[in-house]
Every structure is written in structure tokens, then in C-alpha cells.
Amino acid sequence: MRIKEQKYLLPDGREVIIKSAGPEDAMKIKLHREATANETHFMAREPEDGQLCLERITEILGSIAESDRDFMVNAYIGDELVGDLGVTLIRPHVKYLHRAYLGMSIRQMYTGMGLGSFMMQIALDQAKANGFEQVELGVYSDNDRARHMYRKMGFKEYGMNPRAFKLKDGTYRDEIIMANIFAG
């Protein structure tokens, strides 16, 4: 699904354009996700996992763009992709149709500027409009900044997957399971 383009001003006055992602954005998303994997351990991928498959990303973006409920938005400063956020149906079975999963990434140099909260509000509003009753996500237990923002946006912690992530140094991180259950 495609959503209405929106603008966000960073504290330094630069304009960020938030717009729907489509197959035409596949290369930028590929490069963005590979870059964010290099910046922090909070992403699911490590650089050693190899390059992402451009054809697969293009296919997924085409499917999302044609979906009645799933969507993905990108944040651009000029032509530079600085953030992405996707909301997708957890499973296409009757018992799951009320639930969506959310994933997001923002380049480190643009965190702490309100962009994540702005993108999250767009996502939650659109998820509600699309008929989802709750949005779920998983976050690293040591990602305090993200956990704070998610709580601010109405997410509650419902569980934990112990040792969900094993880092290159051999240490583990738990995954905190969070959900935003819409009143209704």
C-alpha cells in the first residue's frame, strides 16, 4: 500500500521527506540496510551475513506496494535514504488478521532527532486505518533509546526471548517483545 507523503524538519532545519517505498527503491534500501548493519549491533544482520539480494528486496517491495494492509515508508534527505519502517501482517490466517509486525532502522547520525517518533506515529496511524488492532515488535534488551521511544509511543513490554541474539564477541542479548494494543 502507498501512503501520503509527509515532511519532517530536523532540529538543524533540514527537511526529511517520508514517503512510501516501492520496487524502485530496492537498491537504496539494500544499501541502507547494509549500512545500518555496520553501525550498530541492534540490527538483525551483521556485515558478515553478506550482501542482501536485490531481486528479493524488489519482489518484497512490489508485494508490499500492492498490499491492502502492509506498507513501508522511507525517510529521505534529498536523495539519501536515512530511515525505513515497515508494517506487515504477521500471518494471513483468520486468527492473526488483527496483528501486524513492525520493523524500523534509522542511520545513527539521524537518531535522537525525533525522526523515529515521527515515523512511528505515521505507522501507528496507518496501521489503525488499515484495520490492525495491535502492532508488535522485538527490540534488543540493551537498546535503551529504542525501548524508551517505543514506550513513549504506547508500546508495552509483554515478554522476553532470552539469548535471542549472539554477538560476534560471544555475548548474548535478550529480545524484548513489545506490543501496542489499540483501544477499541
TrEMBL record:
Q: Does the keyword Iron-sulfur apply?
A: no
Q: Which Pfam families does the annotation name?
A: Acetyltransf_1 (PF00583)
Q: Which PROSITE patterns match?
A: GNAT (PS51186)
Q: Which residues form the N-acetyltransferase domain?
A: 16-183
UniProt GO MF annotations: acyltransferase activity, transferring groups other than amino-acyl groups
UniProt xrefs under InterPro entries: Acyl_CoA_acyltransferase, GNAT_dom
Q: Does the keyword Transferase apply?
A: yes
Q: Which Gene3D superfamilies does this UniProt record tie to the protein?
A: 3.40.630.30
* Keywords, ordered alphabetically: Transferase
Q: What is this protein called?
A: Acetyltransferase GNAT family
- What organism is this sequence from? Butyrivibrio proteoclasticus (strain ATCC 51982 / DSM 14932 / B316)
